[in-house]
User: Fold this.
Amino acid sequence: THMLRGIRTAADFEYERGLSQINKLMLPEIESIFLLTLPEHTPVNSTIIRDIIRNGGDASQFIPASIDIRQYI
Assistant:
């Protein structure tokens, strides 16, 4: 079993590494795979996306077309 996790910053890596180690202790068959983001997407996170949408902005450039963001807000 594999778990894909996105990494934007060194802080993300430290957090995800700890989480991965705990997951591995609890379920040894789990392998974490870390994906690095493109530099232009580094500042984008779920809080920013929610704030854009809550304030009536268009966050579609940050969300895959296959995702209907309205079901999450």
Observations:
- The first strand starts at residue 2 and ends at 7.
- Residues 35 and 58 are 26 Å apart (CA to CA).
- The mean pLDDT is 91.
